[in-house]
Amino acid sequence: MSTPPGELLSHTPALRPGILLSPALLRGPATVHLIKEPAAGASFEVGEKEYFLISRLDGVRSLAEIGDEYARAYGKRLAAAHWQRLLQLLGTRGLLAGGPPRPAPEPRSGGPFEGTVLRGTLRLVADAHATTGRLHRLLRPVLRAPVLLPLTAVLAAMEVVLAAHLPELARDTWWLVRQPVALVAVCTLLWLSTAFHELAHGVAARHHGGTVGEIGLRWRLPVAVMYCTVDNYRYLRSRWHQLAVAAAGAYANLLFLLPFLAWWAALPPGDPTRRVLSGLLLLGSVQALVNFLPLPPLDGYTMLGHALRVSGLAPESGRYMRLRLRDRPAAAAYPRRARTLYLGYAVGSALLVALVLAALATGLVLLPVH
What we know:
- By secondary structure, the chain is α+β, with helices and mostly antiparallel strands.
- The chain contains 14 helices and 8 strands.
- The strands form 2 sheets. Strands 1, 2, 3 and 4 form a 4-stranded antiparallel sheet that branches. It has a 4-stranded antiparallel sheet with strand order 5-6-7-8.
- The longest helix is centred in the C-terminal third of the chain and has 31 residues, at about 335-365.
- The radius of gyration is 26 Å and the shape is elongated.
């Protein structure tokens, strides 16, 4: 294999400041990394070997030094053509310092509204990152372990109390669905809880170093929900920080219920207001806890992907299971970790869906009895 020219090997190229590199992610049978240039918003995947080289372009090490490290790690020395293709790729994508940056995407035209009356989005703030930044500064004193740990214990205790009163909550909720005015009030509060859910994702992202792209309202009539687009938190190095951002929404849903629990506990059983609050607490708890299920598109699915460092867990599990049925040698070629994770998720998610459906069917059968 030819040796790269000395002039090329002496170069010390560097990535443009601010380029984001993700931790290793399993996708299918391969381990990949994501690379993103935040200003342009473009991202792409590279393999382990490419990441090994790209992550070492720091403007200090020469290509010769990086090539020596690569040869020690992989037992193979790179040819000049490989270096040239790699640098050309990075330069074309605007990732190298000193090169022309990739053009930023054109701002969305037509104002904050997109779509139709029946289906569309409405951007609610001009600068979502700045808005969540102000919220983060306000909430920063409570976003610390000495506050969050006991608060989490209180929320867990709340769910234990509600579970102990489940028959009462179920009876009152069945009563509530036949009270149109009270039901509208509860649904309005639950909708407000979803807004807190989305903002919590944004505040948690700001707290841990992520960015927020957009806050708005999305609707497909008759349903309309708030949304908060969180960018770049997949590139956070800490797995715990990624999990915290993903879990923040459901955590905010539970926190939203806490004052209503105190109100509910202060009223005697059978009180009409207590019965309305029972419905709110039961439906709100279901809303929050269902979000922790590891099924797409729920937050629990995102959390599981971060915990396992897997990208596209559900579709890749489906692809692997189809290979097991149609092409056993191709499935057997997957690394052992990939085979274990994809088979485990395919079986586990199917069982979970069956359990959820069975629980719903049981609830529908038993609830009217009371």
